């Protein structure tokens, strides 16, 4: 039974079927053509959430739905059958199709069949065209670039494979052997994984000697390129095997296929180089990172027919050779992410037919060639994320064909040539993250025909020159990205007429006033980002967004908005209302929103419990941030249903009770913050299940008991903050084996025993990070970062963003005993070490001076003895030092940088035996050794001690006293002073 929502089959009435729509008959009255192809197929694709969305403007579904009647296959004179782009409800391929032996054209692509191919097509020996492509969807972000208030390069690598609905498979290809007349074979998305396990899997293809086009993209083919079989296809013009798992090199023998004009091996694991294939017109080897392409060598020979070349994301390096211009037929050159160096050669302007030039994400330097204006056919110019400098040449305005211009993430300076806005065909302009300057009236853009505009953080200031300027009907943009453009005033009224607007990003400006309600009702809006402004007032209780290739986002964070949280969110994937003044309860409806992936309500005035509606069984929630509010009650057990949860932040509320066992099901959790509440009990056992956990913050609660040994099994852990609880017993040695751990915060507990001796496992603390990597998670085009409170340089510091170089070791305010482990010297990348307010004793190790990155060292309020190691004077980064309230002695060491620290002596107060410290001993008592280094004095005392012991054994006590009586006073004083020091050391070591 077929349903026909478009009413296409309404003409199928009466006895003369030759007059029906989609039917054609021969002169003898036999049906020879049945064309039921969907005339308006929905342009569907995958967004960054790996969800299937529509990218078309179809408001009506034209697809036929249901199953095919067997009567269709009784038309045995049929030569042409097209059922593509319909919905046959995952039904099997009709076996009766084998009756249509006169078929020359068969198209069943994207029709939602699901089956395994065996013998269904074996009898169709007259076929010349066969398309069995499945409904495969790929993400399309080729012309998309939008920043949401953070510098982030999005990685769509996880979406490189297709998602199939109605997948067809074929365990082998023997069914092809009888189809000798085939010219076009399209099996895109057909699963050939099992077939390709055989070494000669492609042998049946080699029998198709008339084949002109072979398309086997995304078929899960693995192994080598079937060279021998392909060489039999002497009429082959098009060969596509992209998005598979081919692992060989491109064979030179393909040059023998003189008819071959199109070759696509992109998205595989190929290696080697590109062989010389002079017959090619189109070549794509993109996304084969192991391929090494030498452009100088490649273009040392002529590629006279080549029109399309895509080598993106391969190993190129080097520069673009001037000889590229010898390929005068080239119309499209794409080389993104190839580590290309040097400048763009001026000879490239000889490519008069060039329409697409994409060199994104390279290391290209120098200026844009002024002569680029001679590329009169150029339509698409994209050079983002390079190191271009200088002004944007005004000569670009002399390229009348230019439709897309992307120069963002460079070092371009000066003003934007306003003539660019008047280019007759320009629809997309991206110049964010440059270093331009100057003011631009918003009204200038209304006079253009731009559809995508991104100026964010470019250095330009955008002026709303007339709040009530008349709307220009021809201005209907899809993307407006004006982040950090110094905009002031309210949102212009003419925005209400932007019916095609999909993305509106006005974040980080000085906009004010109320957000107009009509903004939430724009018919095409998918992303609304107004964060970091001065908006105030209420927002409507219902927000509805439109599906697009992007996830749907409402970001109103960091404003002065108030009132209740909106209760009705329709088609919203991400909502961020952080740091406003919203009040009341969290609406129960929020947790029921289908497809919602992120809820951020942090830093408001919300109270009451966490709604029970959160985390229904079908949820896809990845981020839940309810921190810094006044929430009360317990953590709901149903949070265990949030199996997709990556980020959970409930910190700084008034939550009580214990952590429910049901949370153990959230095994994907990477960030957990429960700090600043009133939780109690032992260390939560459920945390053992979070093997991907990177950040754990439980500070400021009433947890007690020991820190479990399983903490050492969380190998991804980077930040651990358990401060201000009642944990006791010793620090587990297993903690020191975590190679990724960069911050340990165990202060203000009841921990006892020694600091573990073996610190070899703390690899992240052993190196100083050269590159700053921010800790956080990118999802749905939004970034959620880690935050951390640390005590450094004697002050509490709140880090809004945590980078990989923010390492620290803080075990202060406990009851730890023992000595400082010598192996602390291995932690040369550690800037913060706080061991204060404990019962540690012994000497300060000389190896502390090997901690070359140390910026803050606090050893105060312990029982350390002996001298301050002179090795500390070589710590050039040291800015904060606190040795106060110990039992240190000797002289404070001297050094050019060390002498500048705390000249008032406050870092040493409370050490009565420390020479030069406030309240300490007078340095004049150390006159005999005043010009000696600390190390030399220590050696002299040892020598004198040996001499004294020797004399005592030789002469006995009586002889010793007689000797001392005859000595001069200054020698006698030196002896007893040495004895006092030795006795003091023995006492301290014994304690």
TrEMBL record:
GO terms for cellular component: plasma membrane. SUPFAM superfamilies: L domain-like, RNI-like. Gene3D superfamilies: Ribonuclease Inhibitor. GO terms for biological process: defense response; response to other organism. Residues 2-26 form the Leucine-rich repeat-containing N-terminal plant-type domain. It comes from the Eukaryota. The keyword Ubl conjugation does not apply. It holds the Pfam family LRR_1. It is a single-pass type I membrane protein. Keywords: ATP-binding, Cell membrane, Glycoprotein, Kinase, Leucine-rich repeat, Membrane, Nucleotide-binding, Receptor, Repeat, Serine/threonine-protein kinase, Signal, Transferase, Transmembrane, Transmembrane helix. Residues 596-747 form the Disease resistance R13L4/SHOC-2-like LRR domain. The chain crosses the membrane at residues 943-967. It catalyses: L-threonyl-[protein] + ATP = O-phospho-L-threonyl-[protein] + ADP + H(+); L-seryl-[protein] + ATP = O-phospho-L-seryl-[protein] + ADP + H(+). It is found in: Cell membrane; Membrane. Its main location: membrane. InterPro entries: Leu-rich_rpt, Leu-rich_rpt_typical-subtyp, LRR_dom_sf, LRR_N_plant-typ, LRR_R13L4/SHOC2-like, Plant_RL_S/T_kinase. Its EC number is 2.7.11.1. One of its GO terms (molecular function) is ATP binding. The keyword Transmembrane applies. Belongs to the RLP family. This is non-specific serine/threonine protein kinase. It comes from Nicotiana tabacum. The gene is LOC107821993.
